[in-house]
C-alpha cells in the first residue's frame, strides 16, 4: 500500500512538472506577440482620440499623484502620452483604468487638447455585458468627442448641456464608470499637465 502511494505521488509530481514546463514554454512563445498586440491597440487608440497628432511620446515618469489618487480611489492613470504635431506639443493622451464597471475594470484612452477640449475616448479593455454595457462604444464614446467641460454628468432621456452625457439605457453602472473615469482623467490633466 505504501509503495502505491509513493508511486502515485511520483506520477502526479512528474505530470505537474511536465505541465509546468509546457506552460512556461507556451508563455515564453506568446509573451512578445501579446505585448505587440497591446502596443498596437494603444497606438490605434492614441490615433483615434487625437487624430491631429502625428507622434505620441510616452512620459517616462508621472508625478507623485497621491492627492489625486485619494480623490479618485476607483481610478488610475496608467500612462500619459504627449501628443505632438510637427514636434510641437498639442495635448495629451491619458490611459485611465476605472474599477467601477459592471463587469470589472474598464481601461480607456482619452485625448485632451492643450485648451482642455476632449478630443475623444477609445476603449482599450472592458468586460461589460454584451448588448448593454458593451454598447458604450456606439452610445457613450461619440458623446465625449470635441467637448470642453470642467466635468461631465450623465442624464437619462437626452443630454442638453455641454457637460451632459446621455446614459446607456439599462447600463447605468457602465455609464457612471465611463463618466467618472473621464472626469478623473480631466482632473489629472488640469492638475498635472496643464
Can you walk me through this structure?
- With 194 residues, this protein is an alpha+beta fold.
- It has one domain.
- Helix content is 43%, strand content 27%.
- It has helices at residues 2-49, 66-71, 136-139, 141-144, 172-193; strands at 55-58, 75-85, 88-101, 104-113, 118-125, 153-155, 164-166.
- Strand 3 and strand 4 form a beta hairpin.
- The mean pLDDT is 88.
General shape: elongated
Strand residue content? 25-35%
Q: How many domain regions?
A: 1
Quantity of strands, as a count: 7
Arithmetic mean pLDDT: 88
- The value of Rg in angstroms is 22 Å
- Class by alpha and beta content: alpha+beta
Low-confidence stretches: none
Helix-strand string: HEHEEEEHHEEH
Number of helical stretches of at least 4 residues: 5
Strand order, main sheet: write it out: 1-2-3-4-5
Fold topology:
Blueprint: H1 2-49, E1 55-58, H2 66-71, E2 75-85, E3 88-101, E4 104-113, E5 118-125, H3 136-139, H4 141-144, E6 153-155, E7 164-166, H5 172-193
Parallel strand pairs: 6-7
Antiparallel strand pairs: 1-2, 2-3, 3-4, 4-5
Give me some keywords for this one.
single chain; 194 residues; alpha+beta; two-stranded parallel sheet; 7 strands; elongated
Summarize the structure.
This protein is an alpha+beta fold. 43% of the residues lie in helices and 27% in strands.
Amino acid at each position: 500500500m505504501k509503495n502505491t502511494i509513493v508511486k502515485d505521488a511520483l506520477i502526479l509530481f512528474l505530470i505537474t512538472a511536465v505541465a509546468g514546463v509546457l506552460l512556461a514554454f507556451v508563455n515564453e512563445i506568446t509573451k512578445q506577440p501579446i505585448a505587440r498586440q497591446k502596443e498596437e491597440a494603444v497606438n490605434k487608440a492614441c490615433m483615434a482620440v487625437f487624430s491631429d497628432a502625428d507622434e505620441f511620446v510616452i512620459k517616462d515618469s508621472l508625478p507623485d499623484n497621491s492627492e489625486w489618487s485619494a480623490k479618485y480611489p476607483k481610478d488610475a492613470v496608467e500612462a500619459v502620452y504627449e501628443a505632438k504635431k510637427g514636434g510641437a506639443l498639442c495635448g495629451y493622451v491619458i490611459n485611465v483604468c476605472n474599477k467601477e464597471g459592471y463587469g470589472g475594470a474598464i481601461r480607456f484612452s482619452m485625448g485632451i487638447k492643450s485648451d482642455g477640449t476632449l478630443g475623444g475616448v477609445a476603449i482599450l479593455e472592458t468586460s461589460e455585458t454584451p448588448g448593454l454595457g458593451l454598447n458604450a462604444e456606439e452610445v457613450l464614446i461619440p458623446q465625449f468627442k470635441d467637448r470642453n467641460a470642467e466635468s461631465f454628468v450623465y442624464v437619462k432621456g437626452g443630454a442638453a448641456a455641454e457637460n451632459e452625457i446621455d446614459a446607456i439605457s439599462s447600463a447605468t453602472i457602465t455609464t457612471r464608470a465611463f463618466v467618472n473615469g473621464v472626469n478623473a482623467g480631466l482632473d489629472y490633466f488640469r492638475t498635472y499637465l496643464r
